[in-house]
Each structure stands twice: as structure tokens, then as C-alpha cells.
Amino acid sequence: MRSTQERLVVDELLRLQDVRKVYGRSRNSVVALAGVSLGFRRHTFTAVMGPSGSGKSTFLHCAALLDRPTSGGVFLEGQDLTAMSERALTKLRRNRIGFVFQSFNLMPALTVVDNVTLPLRLAGKRPDRKLVDEVIERTGLAARRKHRPGELSGGQQQRVAIARALVTRPVLLFGDEPTGALDSETALEILGLLRGSVDSGEQTAVVVTHDPVVASHADRVVFLVDGQVSAELQRPTVEQVSGQMARLGAWARMQRSAGADRVS
Amino acid sequence: MLRLALKSLRFRKGGFLALLIALFVGGVVVQGCGGLLETGIRADVKAERLAAAPVVVTGSQAYPGNAVGTATDPMTERVLLDEKLADAVAKVPGVAAAVPDVSVPVTALAGRPADASGHGWSSASLAPYKLVAGTAPAASDQVVVDSATAARLGVRPNGQLTASVRGVPYVFRVSGIAESRTATGSVLLFSDEEATRLFDRPGKIDDIGVLATAGTDPARLAQAIGDAVAGHGAQVLTGDHRGTAEFPDAISGKQNLIPLAGAFGGLSAMVAIFVVGSAVGMLMQQRRREMALLRTAGVTPGQLRRMVMAETFVTALLAAALSLAPGLAFGRLMYHVLVGQGLIPGVMVFSQGFIPQLAGFGTTLLAALAAAFIASRRVSRVRPTEALAEATLQTRWVSPIRMILAFVFLGGAFALAMVTASLMTGPIAASTSAPAAMLWAVGIALVSPGLCRVLAAVLRWPVGWLTGLSGRIAMQNASARKVRLASAVIPIMLASGLATALIFLQTSQDDASNRIFAEGLKADAVVSSQNGAIPPSLVDTIAGLPQVAGASASVFSEGHLETVLSPGSGENDTSAARQVRPSQIELEGVTASGARQTIGYPAVQGGYGNLTGDSIVLPTDVLQSGGKKAGDQVELRWGDGEASTMTVVGSFTPPRGFGYAMATTPAGWPASCWPRWWSATR
């Protein structure tokens, strides 16, 4: 029994321990994360869901140390990220973590190839042609190498973003509503790419979403409400996720009106 | 990194074009001003009438003797030489001839105002002038005229020519016509005796033209002559410096040009730094999201900073390189404008060497890098999460450093205003205006985001009422984006604010001095001449007219009162043994008999009527601060470097700070000061 538990802990790539995030000063502060503790095992695909204002985005920013938590610890392979300097963090993100955002976040001045190889250049590494070609091939961008982001469709832009996230061979892949700006067909293709990178045994993916279809592609779905983990589902179907979300939505609304009653 | 910077430069052409233009214009203006400064410092004037003399000896304009303190500016009138110095120069080996030269101002020719000069015939060898008709002037009533003037006036040898010297007309017989290849001015050549008589400063000369024996090196000769005339208040000129002996106006041109070019250049450099700073800041704000995005893509804060610096540096390098040729053209243009306005004489040789070019180049780069450095500090604090929000508004602009600086600058400006208003008087008070304008400008620039919000709030309703919905949206946008608005407003505010301040400074000063002048004048009528020259005898003629109660001459100059620190051997001792502390004072020459009736300020002690010989009337405050009273003696240094011990015969009370001294005219007055007259009727 003991050995299983140890193996579980060792197998954990990322761990958030009692992470709290409070925005604003004392008088009109907003608690975005109220003590979240979560572990993410290697080579899994986790979706983080929750109604608006549940702290999904804050959770992601804190997990990747894009924003510093007010208190608590974030451990990547056992190393505490909250203790690192901004410079060291940037380098760690550059080498070990890939990001895919809803708004693509490509450099408008750079071509597809330049955008994809940007993290390598920033790290002062000479891009490995074979690797770059393989990533561009895998994301289906071979015909668009010299285009600028402005000349691509939304789906193509997100492919570039995924290619850019994968080119450094990161251990961890974060997605912030990666399909939020795409139509359902394109979204499925993008999801396929993310799923593929996890299944090939290379990456571990953590994706924040409000879309039950996205969540149904995950190995595990974590539900956040008011900055706290409220439920978890393993390998859920779209219907299960939708049902859970509906309950959470109703529950959250009830909580809020109850809170309002108390105040009044 | 540089590659990334360059790509982003190419992509954001518009913004960088604006930055490029700002840097380019700044570079051009700074280079042009540098050129004017160099022209002023070199003060090169090509020799014309003295072109054949490789070395010219003339009076040193530096403050004579051993003077200490802050008022030791160069002399404002031409400093004359002792005529005996010519003999000393002639004895120097390598000197073929040392020709004493005088310039007599000729104010009218053949009854019409003219800008001509008269000289002795012996100085004709210095140009040289060659006779093309007739003979050299043999008698005191004979004159040789240069060919261009002769042609213009239509005079021939043996014809008659009336020439006025300081307003007094003389009739000459033209003995010959002379021509020179180098001289362009209108020149009359009298006999040497007549020239000395008309020059009217016995024992004194303007300069000595030195003709060298064949094969003598001018520089070495100048060195030897310098040793020979040392201690006599002379300076030895060669090459393009010789012209200042011929055109003493160039000295005042130099004194006009150096502060003008310095102030304008400094001001434009400062405005350029601000404009460039704002432009860079605005560019960075526009790209804030892009910067945040780069941070998410793995750019460290340091890399981001270096990128911003690299981008700006490349732009600045391009702008600086482009500004080199126009900078030269701009300097030349400014020179011609200033010559056209009469601020500097056209005989000054414009020179803009590599130093002004280098300075302009350097300023451009430095301004850009300083601006980029400041902007990059803010950029490096951009958080990666800012890229994830849909639209980011910068609302924070108050930083402790900014507030401290704003407090210092605005406080300094306020303090300067208080000090100027309460303690400073007269024309000196104007000297704080330019620094004050700068302090206000910088201070207001620092708090401008706050001001912009207030202004947007104030203008919101009027603009909305006038323009409807679009105007209201624009105003809401303006108040929400106050930091960005401020970046756009600051350069315009600075440029127009400083320009307005300087223009009104000039008009206020003119207005004040006109008012003071009018207050000081009680005369009912003023007689003056088109070219400023009136014969001294006219004052008696006017005073003798019926109904004229009194008439007084009026001549203006500038001198120094000297406080003797160690006496040496007397007022004309220029050795180190005599040490004095000069203080500058305006001088007005008046006629004792008519001063009481024409001067607006009544005498407090003594009276204007006592002004005879070496006597002076001083403002009361000057007299008091020197611990003197009527009857005491003061040391006066005239504008041409001569010194006199003057007896104080009275005092009067002009407005504070506009004090001037009064002395009798014409005795002792520099020859270049021509009387302007006024008379009082009643």
C-alpha cells in the first residue's frame, strides 16, 4: 500500500499546495483562489472547468507562475517555483513549459517558422531543422511556413501556437481555452493535436476550459467553484461533464444569492 | 535578439517613422546650432582691405588689467592702440613695413547717407589699392575714391565730393580713383595727416598692418610681433582672424552668436530629448501587449529591455546618419537668416566642421538611448498575464520617483518665480525666465497624465455638446487612456509652451525697456539722424533757438565701475600689481547745461549742471552700495578700455535695476559713439 502511494507522489509532475491568490488591497480584495491543492501526474490530460469567475484563469496563471500566488507552493518535479526569480522562471517556462492561449498570442511581425522557433532563439539555441520540420509537419503547417499570422485563419494560427509550444519539447503543456475562438470542427482538430502530444508519451497537458466537449477529451476533469476544487471526474463523457457543470452553476447561483441575503 | 528587433521595426513602420522623424529633426537642429556656435567661437572674418598684410596688430578686446569677479566681459567698444607701437613692430626682423591704420566713419557721401570708411593713403598698400586714374592725395583736401563708389556716385578725378564724418560735412577734391581685388567696401583714402585729423584720437590708431619681407612665415612672424607688443593691450591676428581688425562689428557678432546658438541648441536638444522620450514611451505603450506576449513566449525582462534598446538604437543610427547633410544646410540657412536680421555681420565666415556634426550625431543617439532606457524600465516590468487580458489600459502612472521629480521641478520653478519677483530688479530679472520656463515644462510634463484627466473632464461636456456622440466617446476614451494621451500631448505642450514663453519674454523685455526709456525722458522733442550721426555743434544751435529751454546730447555706451582691491601704480596700471573688481553699468553722455531740462529723474544729491570734465552722476543705489557720496571719486573703465577717475557730482533715482550713469559728452567718449540729440522746448 505504502509503495503505491510513494509511486503516485513520484509520478506527479506538477503539484499545487494550498495555493491562494488575492487580488487588490485589503479593503476591496477579491479572493480568486482560496487554497487549491492539486497534483498532476505525468502523461495525463487534465481539464480544469468551472463557471465564470470560479478562478480558472487565475489557477492557470499561478500554476505556470505567470502570476505569483499570494501564498502556497507550486512544485514542478519537486522544485518550488514560487522561490525562483523572474528571470529563472522565464527560462524555466521557455525550456520546460509550453503555452497555448485562446488568443493565439503570435508575434505579428514574424513568419510562421520564426514564430515557431522563437522560444529556441530566445534561449540562444540554434533551431534543430529536423525537429522544427517535424513539428511543423505534425501541426499541418508545411504549406504556410513563410506566412505571417495576419494571413492565417484562426485554426491555422492556433496550430502555429501549438507548434511553438511543442518545439522546445516541454514536459508540461498549458492551455487557456485553446479552442475558445474556433469553430467546433477546427476545435476538434486542435484537441486531437493536444491529445496526441500526451498519448505519444511526451507531454502532460493541463487545459482550462468551459467547453464540455474539450473536457470529454481529458483523462480527468477538475471542477473549480469560487476558487476551490469542488469535484473531480475521471474519463467523463460530454453528458457527465455538462450535468456536473449545470449542477455547479445552479449551486453557485444559490450560494451567491444566499451570500447576498446574508449581507442584506 | 537584434534580428527580432529589426523584424519588429519593419513591421511597425508608422511608429518608427515618427520616431525617426523626431530624431532626425532634433539631430538637424542641434547640428545647425553647433555650426553657429563654431562660427561664433572661431569668429573668422576674411580680411579684405588688409588682405595683403599677413599679420595685423589690433587692440585686445579682453578686459584690461587684472580684473576679478563676474563682470569681466570683453570691451564693447573698439580698443585702440598707441601709435608708437607701430615703431616697435617695424623693428621686428622679417617686417618689411608696419603701417598704422585708422578707420574714419563716413556717414554720408555727396549728401546721401552712406556706409563708408576713410583711411590714410599709406594704408592703401595693405589691400593693396592701385590707382587706375589720377594721383595719390597730396593735400589735406584731396581724396582717392574706390572705383565702385566712384562709378556709383559718378565722380571723376578733379571732381568734388562732399563726405560727412560723424555728421560734419567736408568738401574734398577727388585726386584719383583706386581699385582693389580684395576689398569690397566703400572706401575713401585721405592723406595720412587728414585721416589722423578726422580720426580725432590723438596718439591712437585702430590697427597696424604688417607687410612681411619675402619668404617670412606668417605664424612665426606673428609670434615675434606678439613678443614685441606684449603688455600693450594688443593682439596679433593672422589668416582669417585678421578680418576682425577690419570689421569690429564681428566682435559683437561673436558675442551675439555664442549665447544665441548655445541657448537655442541647448533648448532644441532638450525638446528633442523630450519628444523622443515621449515617442518611444508611446510606441512601447502601443506594443505593451506584444511585449507581454513575448514574455509568455519566454523572453526574460532583460532580453525585452535589450530589444527595446536595440530597436531604438537602430532607428537613431539611421536618423543621425540621415541628418548629417541637412544639418549642414540648416546651419547655413540659420546663418543667412541671422545675417539678414542684422544679428551678426555677413563678413563672418560660416564654418561648421566635424565637431558640430559629431555633436548632433551624438545627441541624437544619446537622446534616443536615454529615452529607450527609461521606456525599457517600464517595459521590463510588463507581466506575462497582460497578454492574456483582452485589452489592457495603463492607468498607473504615479511612481514615487516621478512624484519626487515633479515636486522638485515644480517647486524649483515656483521658488524661482518668487525669488525673481521679490529680489531681482531690472534687466537681470529676465535672466531667470528661460530656466524657469524649462522647470515648468519638465514639471508639468511629469504630472501631465493627471492634468490630462482633469482637462478631459473639463472639456467633456463642451466637446460632447458641440460634437454629439462621437465627441463624447472620444472624450471618454481620452480620460480612460490618460497616460497614452499624455504621451501624445507632452511633446506638443513642450514645444509650443517653450516657444511661447521665449517669444513673450522678448516682447515683455522690449516693452519694459521702452517704458523705462520713456519715463527717463522729459524732452518735448527729439532730433535724430537717419544714420545716427549729428555734428556736436548742433546742440548749441538748438539750445540757442527761441522757446528752447534746454538741449542735451545723448550718447549711449557701456562701461564698468571698478572697486580697487589693490591699487598698484594708478588707474592706467594694467600689471598684476593693480587688482580691481568691475561691475557693469550703462553710460549716457549728456550736456551739462541741458540735462536738467531733458532728464526725467530729478537729481537727489548735487545736480546735472555740475557735469564738467571727469565727473559723473550715479544712481543712488549704486552710490550707496559702493559706500560713496557726492564729491567722492570712482574709478570708471570706459567701453574702449580707457580708465578714468571720475568725481561724483550728483545722484538720481531711476527704477531699480535700470540704473545708468551720466557723464559729460563729448569729452572722453569713445570715437565710435555718435551723439543722438534731444531738446526740450517750453
**Helix coverage percent of residues of chain B?**
40-55%
* CATH architecture descriptor name of chain A: 3-Layer(aba) Sandwich
Main sheet properties of chain A: 6 strands, mixed
Morphology call of chain B? globular
Number of strands of chain A: 10
Q: How many structural domains are formed by the residues of chain A?
A: 1
**Helical percent range of chain A?**
40-55%
Strand order of the largest sheet of chain B: 16-17-22-19-21-20
Tally of helical runs of chain B: 18
What is the third-level CATH name, the topology of chain A?
Rossmann fold
Q: Low-confidence parts of chain B, pLDDT < 50 over ≥5 residues? A: 670-676
Could you explain how this protein is built, in words?
The complex is a heterodimer of chains A (264) and B (682). Chain A contains nine helices and ten strands. Chain A has 264 residues and is of the alpha/beta class. A six-stranded mixed sheet of chain A has the order 6-7-8-3-9-10, sandwiched between helices. In chain A, strands 2-1-4-5 form a four-stranded antiparallel sheet. In chain A, strand 4 and strand 5 form a beta hairpin. Mean pLDDT of chain A is 84; it is low at 1-8 and 260-264. Chain B is of the alpha+beta class and 682 residues long. Chain B has four domains: 1-45 and 247-389, no CATH class; 55-246, no CATH class; 395-519, no CATH class; 525-681, no CATH class. A six-stranded mixed β-barrel of chain B has the order 16-17-22-19-21-20. In chain B, helix 8 (249-286) packs parallel to helix 11 (354-379) and helix 14 (469-480) crosses helix 15 (482-519). Helix content of chain B is 47%, strand content 22%. Classes of the chains: A alpha/beta (264), B alpha+beta (682). The A-B interface holds A 57, 61, 66-67, 86-87, 90-91, 93-95, 99, 101, 103, 105-110, 114, 118-119, 121-123, 164, 176 and B 3-4, 7-8, 10-12, 290, 293-303, 383-385, 387-388, 390.
